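for the writeup, i need someone to sanity check this before i put it in the appendix. the sequnce is what the collaborator sent (i think, or maybe the updated version? ugh). structure was predicted straight from it, no edits. if anything looks off just tell me and ill rerun, i have time this weekend
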Amino acid sequence: MESGFSAGPSTGPQIGSVREAVAADAPALAEVLAAACRASYTGIIDADFLAGMNIRETTDRWESTLRENTQVPPRVAVLDGALAGFCQVGVSHDSPGRDLDTPGTGEL
């Protein structure tokens, strides 16, 4: 399942926006995540693992997350009508600070 996502530089004018992710974004989110992991972790994480990232399984996880977990939905960046990136905010994994009730504590 290829979305046409390219991690390379764009040429020409770009029109961008940021919005909440929706379940229909799941396939593009999976492609963007895989491309980001491959670009960021080559030489750090096993090459076979990166090459074998399962886009269908990742799509299914994103669909489930976006349908069921609405506490803090991810945001997506859209350029020229195509999903180009995302960010997600959640509870901090640092100690202390794992308390969701602590204002201003989180992880991007």
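Residues 43 and 76 are 27 Å apart (CA to CA). The beta strands are 16-20, 75-79, 82-87.
thx in advance!!
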